[in-house]
Amino acid sequence: MRKKELSYYVTSFFTEYLSGEAGLSINTIKSYRDAFILFYKYLEEAGICKISKLKMDMLNADNITGFLDWLEQSRCCSIRSRNQRLAALKAFCSYVIRRSPEESALCQGVLKIRIKKAPQKSVEYLSGAAIEYLLKMPNSHSMQGIRELAMIALMYESGCRVQELIDLRVGDIAFRSPNTLTLTGKGNKSRVVPISINAANILKAYLNSAGIDDTVHPVFVNRYNKTLSRSGVSYVLDKYGQIAHKARSDLFPSKLHPHILRHSKAMHLLENGVNLIYIRDFLGHSSVTTTEIYARCSPELKRKYIEQAGTLITETVEEYSDGEKEALIDWLRENI
């Protein structure tokens, strides 16, 4: 039996598996595609192989490791981007093993490559006062202003991702008690999130002024009535962010990115005592581990945890039991 080449597996991986069996979103598929484009580019630039002569054995651990280092060193990609590219290649190798077990030895070498640990960044978020200031900036009496106010209010109220905002349709909004949005996130997973009466009223005013009522129509479009782009969302927030920073540098960083509103909502929920499990579901995280980063980044929460621990101090000093030691270590690991 003739051995199948790399191009065969790549073609079936993208045309059959990812969108069909795996059911991945178009954005994830594009990310995987970009990983292969960059990998091919690396093989050519490094003089390893021309694209026209690609063979299956080019997908080995040494080449993949060299590719990952090239991403960081030559293309100045972040560790997160490096790990995303590796995840795409690992997903492909897992697929190949299922299709052709005879390629297991080659692919297992790639699957054993470990992700690179990145230094944990602090979560950047806005205070409640900053959010209040930001929401007062757009001119709600103009068509453009009410549209931009609705965008900002919705991003904060729902904690949605940028792509979720772009994909939102009029039919995904339920104006009732409580007012809700149905958001479709990563992996095409949907979740229903509540929004306040104020946010719902802003949204109603925008839709009425824009004359948008078709349930399949995107909630937000650009000036040409085309689907809003990620850069379009970033432009709106950056515009107000620059003005706000000049006026109140004590409240605003030098640049606002759309995700900062999502972070802000999560932090404000946490600081108001909402359980991490509910915040995980609200944000659409697949694991509470992802959500826990917010608990580690709030000085106010750390202060509360320390004060709570302080109330346990007694006048007498006794040795901890083994169980108490383990409980203390777990508490410190989770909260500090």
Automatic annotation (TrEMBL):
Assigned keywords, A-Z: DNA integration, DNA recombination, DNA-binding
Does rRNA-binding show up as a keyword for this record? no
Residue ranges of every copy of the Core-binding (CB) domain listed in the record: 4-97
Q: Which residues form a coiled coil?
A: none
Q: Which GO terms describe its biological process?
A: DNA integration; DNA recombination
Record-level Gene Ontology MF annotations: DNA binding
The question of whether DNA-binding is a record keyword is answered with yes
Domain of life, per lineage: Bacteria
Tyr recombinase domain: residues covered: 121-307
**Entries under Pfam families matching the protein:** Phage_int_SAM_1 (PF02899), Phage_integrase (PF00589)
Query: This chain belongs to which protein, by name?
Result: Site-specific recombinase XerD
